[in-house]
Every structure is written in structure tokens, then in C-alpha cells.
Amino acid sequence: MTQLSAAQSPAPKGQKTDSSKTLYGGKGTRRITVRDITAAKERGEKWPMLTAYDAMTASVFDEAGIPVMLVGDSAGNCHLGYETTVPVTLDEITMLSAAVVRGTSRALVVADLPFGSYQEGPVQALRSATRLVKEAGVGAVKLEGGERSLAQTELLVQSGIPVMSHLGLTPQSVHTMGYRVQGRSEEAAHQLVRDAKAAEAAGAFAVVLELVPAELAAEVTRSLHIPTVGIGAGAGCDAQVLVWTDMLGLTGGRMPRFVKQYADLRGVLGDAAKAFAEDVVGGAFPAAEHSVH
Ligand SMILES: Nc1nc(=O)c2c([nH]1)NC[C@@H]1CN(c3ccc(C(=O)N[C@@H](CCC(=O)O)C(=O)O)cc3)CN21
Ligand SMILES: CC(C)C(=O)C(=O)O
Ligand SMILES: [Mg+2]
């Protein structure tokens, strides 16, 4: 097969023909764009997303090949010590996003629009998103809501800012929704499908589905041309996201059941801090090699 005919024949769904171009494990070094995300759905390729809130952690995940990094407003809980995501400000997300952009060279960096920075309407949303693009250098923003955020999504996309939509459990609405599984009733399932279709029609490049029954998330995934990113939404989604401090066992406290823990950083950091403290108290640190003479 010549290169030309290879380029012209689309790969069958789910089959990877050119692994040099995959989002994870690909050999490309330039920064990933939303067009690469769209192409991955066409290839039927699954991909991982992690949150990041600082340059150092982001550089570790970037070197590990994580293609999309989310500066989530979960920074409120996981980085800034708030109870919920509600108090997080645009100034805070802008500062953290700038650090994550500086810490990465390949990942597409997506920033959450925090509560109160887009609900007033499309013009407020554009003003907020423009700050994140100009001051922090993010490649896309995420906002919660499908039909209810339609006008915001449309104006951002028309203005040249890629939008990721967030449906299902939307934590900025904790005071009206709580943290509960969404889309369980037939009515709620239909609303979720309408929201996903609205986000796609408004030009969103991807949709996060949070805490949605797996069968419903799979149905939404099949009915969209843009990828779904699941968190507590089953294996039928195109991509998966976790909060990094949950995934690495740093958060502490009770975890949502959708979290898989890949390390015990809380234990590692605590043990190291105790070892340092005991060395100082006992006089074992600093030793001669840690001193100048
Ligand atoms: N550390 C952290 N991890 C997250 O995943 C996360 C945040 N913070 N902050 C923002 C939102 C809030 N999220 C949450 C918070 C709580 C539950 C929770 O308690 N879920 C329970 C009950 C679900 C039910 O059965 O209705 C669970 O066991 O999953 C889920 C998602 C997800 N996001
Ligand atoms: C959990 C993800 C999707 C999020 O919105 C966040 O981290 O804020
Ligand atoms: Mg969020």
C-alpha cells in the first residue's frame, strides 16, 4: 500500500493504524490541539486526562505522556483547602493555569471556568475565558451545563476559544443538586442526552460526563461525534479523567467510589516528613556530607 492510499483510507473504528499519532504513546512533541482530540474519536482511540494545579506535577504528567491536563476547580478542595469548588475565583484558576502551562510542553491544557465567572451570560463567559487564554496561555476552557450554558459555549467557540462541556454531576451546583448520581430517571436521562447534543451543536470539542450510569454514558458516547470524558461514568466513554490527588492517594478522607488509587502519596510524604523530623531531633541530620567546612 502506498503512503497516499494509506492516508486516504480511514482506519476501522477501534483499530490503530499509526501509533506515532496517538494521543497517548504518540511520538509527537508539539503541543496537542483540539483537532488532535477530534481525530482521536474518529480513530476510536481512548485517552487519559488528569487534573494538575502546579508546574512541577504538570511536568511529571507531561513527561509521562498524559495528553490533556485539566486545571480543575477541584483545586478548591485539593490545592486551596476550600470545602467545595464554589469559592474558587478566576484569579486563582488563572494563576494555577499559567503554572501548568509553564510546566508542560506537549499536553493540551484546559482550564475550568470557576463558579460565577460565566453564569451571568455569554459576554461574561467570553471575558473570563479570554483572560485564561491571554494571561495563562491555556488551549481550551471547560464550563458546566449543556442547554443552560448553550449561549456561552456558542460565543466562546465563535470567538476562537475551544470549549469542553461538563454534564451529569456538576459540582458548582452542589447547593441545588448535592453530589449524587445523575440521569437515573428516564426524564433525567433524556435531559442528559439533550444537554450533550446541545453542547455538540454549540461547538464543544468534548463533553465530561460525571457520575452518570454507565449504560447512559455509553449511549451518549455513541450518539456524539465529539469525545466523552468519563468520571464515574463507566468504560463506554472515549476518555477518562481523575483528580490527580485522588488517583495518587494524596487527598485523604473518604473517596468517591469511582476513584482508583495508583499510589499512596499521603503515606510516602508523611513517612518522609517523620523520618526528617526524627533525624533533626535525634541529631542524625545534617551529617558531615550535608555541611560545608
Ligand atoms: N478530590 C476531589 N475529587 C473529585 O472527584 C472532585 C472534587 N474533589 N471536587 C469537585 C468534584 C466533586 N466531586 C464529587 C464529590 C463527591 C462525590 C460523592 O460523594 N459520591 C459518592 C455518592 C454517589 C451516589 O451514590 O450518589 C460516591 O460514592 O461516589 C462524587 C463526586 C467530583 N469532583
Ligand atoms: C473532575 C473534573 C472533571 C473537574 O471538573 C475538576 O477537577 O474540577
Ligand atoms: Mg471542575
Automatic annotation (TrEMBL):
Positions of region (Disordered): 1-26
InterPro entries named among the record's database cross-references: Pantoate_hydroxy_MeTrfase, Pyrv/PenolPyrv_kinase-like_dom, Pyrv_kinase-like_dom_sf
Highest taxon above the source species: Bacteria
Pathway(s) it belongs to: Cofactor biosynthesis; (R)-pantothenate biosynthesis; (R)-pantoate from 3-methyl-2-oxobutanoate: step 1/2
Active-site residue numbers: 210
Cell location: Cytoplasm
Cellular component terms per the entry's GO annotation: cytoplasm
Function description: Catalyzes the reversible reaction in which hydroxymethyl group from 5,10-methylenetetrahydrofolate is transferred onto alpha-ketoisovalerate to form ketopantoate.
Record PANTHER family: 3-METHYL-2-OXOBUTANOATE HYDROXYMETHYLTRANSFERASE
Family stated for the protein in its record: Belongs to the PanB family.
Name by which UniProt lists this protein: 3-methyl-2-oxobutanoate hydroxymethyltransferase
Organism: Streptomyces spectabilis
Organism taxonomic ancestry: Bacteria, Bacillati, Actinomycetota, Actinomycetes, Kitasatosporales
Name of the coding gene: panB
